[in-house]
Amino acid sequence: MLRTLLIDVGKALYLFSGLMGLAAILTWMERKQSALMQDRVGANRARIFGLRLLGLPHIITDAVKLLTKEDFVPAGVPTWLHALAPWVTLTVACLPAAAIPFGHVLPWGGQAIELQLMDMQVGLVYALAIASMAIYGVILAGWVTRNKWAVLGSLRAAAQLIGFGVVLGISLIGPVLLYGTLNLQEMVHWQDTTVLHGWLPRWGIFFQPLAFLVFLTVGIAETKRIPFDLPEGESEIIGYFLEYSGMKFGAFFLADFIETVVVAMLTVTVFLGGWSVPYLSADQGGFVWPWGAHTAVPPAGVALLQMAAFWVKVFAVCWLLLLIRWTLPRFRIDQAVRLGWQYLLPLSVLNTFGTAAVLLIVGQ
Amino acid sequence: MPGQFKKVRRPPDNWWVRSYLPAILQGLWITARHFFRNLFIFTAHRFGLLRHVRAGVVYQWPEDPRPVAPRYRGRHRLLKRPDGTPRCVACYMCETICPAECIHIIPQEVPDPFIEKAPKAFYIDLSKCIFCGYCVEACPEDAIRMDVFDFRLAGYDRFQMVLDMETLLNSEPSVPDK
Questions:
Q1: Global pTM?
Q2: From residue A183, how far is each of A43, A202, A300 by CA, in Å?
Q3: Hey, of A29, A39, A47, which one would you mutate to test binding to chain B, going by the most B CBs within 10 A of its CB?
Q4: ω into A227 cis (within 30 of 0)
């Protein structure tokens, strides 16, 4: 009993620290990657004991700055409601990660530890349901601060997130039909093999490219970042967290990065084979190369490789999301809503029917 | 003239162009190319390689001072005669032409009959100066030039922004005198 509890706490700590650590690193990556993309150097002035460490101390200076800034609450606003909004946003942003499998099993003391926080049959539905709740914190933030511009920002957010939330669900029906399960761990198991005589990993992206494209687009919209940052638009159109300062603002900002990581995790799990390492098979006890060779890997090594592969893939998708964020301009609200309802929704419905038809034909 | 125009045919974009995907991919390709090029060169710089190739276009001021063109119009400087006295004859040309009224000269008599006057004090208020260079143009004696390329002109109060004659006379030019 105690052992199970300790294992669960350990897994939660591992996943949470991975999530938060990656989100914190993304704040650094956002600066450095955009700098490199724009032929600049990027933030490099903060230093610890004279060490600049490629600008990494800026993560700490950001936190210190946000914690020591004035925590402004507008007059006539209930303080507890004002404080509630960022924490709702932050909590809801973290929760979907609980359903994500970050590895298969880890052999530990003669026992196999399932590397997933919550092994649910409806893991995907849970993740999407929690992700759709992100709108509550956003609406609360705009509405409670009694500021017209903040309310307009929340309305834009509501229009965008509801429209794209529908597409988010429907775009994943194709993969779900293909895998025949809503269980995220089983989805990864389906992908943890190869096709084309062992050459190509059986990843969802190769079977559902359209769903991948639509899901990635909608995922970016759900993170409320450029090119879909209409709810925020810090520099011009002013968003829902207008009346927030200090760490409360920081919570909203961090929530965006956490959502980026969570969207990357979902993308990796559904489309990029999750924790599976190409050509690595746990049953065969090592790598089975397409040309017939075999490299033995001990079971613990297999588990660690798979855990590492998950983070490597998540990191790569985060890099892609940042690349998109620093390349594309922002949509107008009517363009974003039209894109969601008039193009992405029919496309995802089409993909669902197409997948179903193909599966029906192949199944017969 | 009526009837004399050429109608340019604008074929409607096909669905592939209107999906924005080719443009987006092109943009991502460009930014990704810059990213990897700069990442490679910065990493090479860390190991002391490819020093002659610049990564990025930024000057890491103040460690890496930005080169200044010789024609740059910098801070003022007063020139001296060979005997060390100021070349300025306190003719008020610069003070008169100055649109910002930042030059203030107090003249004095000099014993030398071939020199009209000399400044007793010469102040330039840099907080008012607009760096137009009219004073240099107006000077009949080539006594003032703007070739001190120090652009870190900052002070804790307005009085620190006023240069006196001693500072002006003892400033070194950033490019050698012709």
A1: 0.85
A2: 42, 17, 24
A3: A39
A4: yes
- Report the residue of chain A nearest B54, measured CA to CA: A39
- Chain B residues whose CB is inside 8 A of the A324 CB are 28
Cβ contact A323–B32 (<8 Å): yes
* Residue at token pair 């894109």: A339
CA distance A314 to chain B (A): 18
A33 touches B: beta carbon within 8 Å: yes
Residue A9's pLDDT band (boundaries 50, 70, 90)?
Answer: very high
pLDDT in tens, A13-48: 999 999 999 999 999 999 999 999 999 988 888 888
H helix or E strand, kind and range, residue A317: helix A299-325
Query: For residues A309 and A328, what is the distance between their CA atoms, to the nearest angstrom?
Result: 29
User: Which of A 292-351 lie inside 8 A of B, CB atoms?
Assistant: 323-324, 326-328
Q: Flag whether residue A40 sits within 8 Å of chain B, measured between CB atoms.
A: yes
Min Cα separation A70/chain B (Å): 27
Compute the nearest-CA separation of A39 from chain B (Å): 4
| Residues A229, A235, A241, A245, CA torsion sign | positive
How far apart CA A204 and CA A189 sit, in angstroms, is 11
Tens digits of residue pLDDT in A234-273: 777 778 888 899 899 999 999 999 999 999 999 999 999 9
With an 8 Å Cβ cutoff, are A326 and B31 in contact? yes
pLDDT at res. A355: 95
The number of distinct structural domains making up chain A is 1
B67/chain A closest Cα distance in angstroms: 18
- What whole-number distance in Å separates Cα of residue A176 and Cα of residue A170? 10
State ipTM: 0.88
The answer to whether residue A45 sits within a structural domain is: no
Range of the domain at A104: 68-363
Higher pLDDT, A108 or A222: A222
> Does A39 contact B60 at a Cβ distance shorter than 8 Å?
no
- Which residue does chain A place closest to B55, by CA atoms? A39
3-state secondary structure of B78: strand
Alpha carbon distance B82, A48 (integer Å) = 52
Where is B163: in which H helix or E strand? strand B162-163
Query: Region A193-206: what's the mean pLDDT?
Result: 89
CB A89 within 8 A of CB A138: yes
- Domain membership flag for residue A8: no
End-to-end CA distance of chain B: give it in Å, rounded.
Answer: 60
Residue from A171, A177, A169 nearest A360 by CA: A177
CA distances from A323 to A29, A36, A96, A305, A320 (A): 10, 11, 24, 27, 5
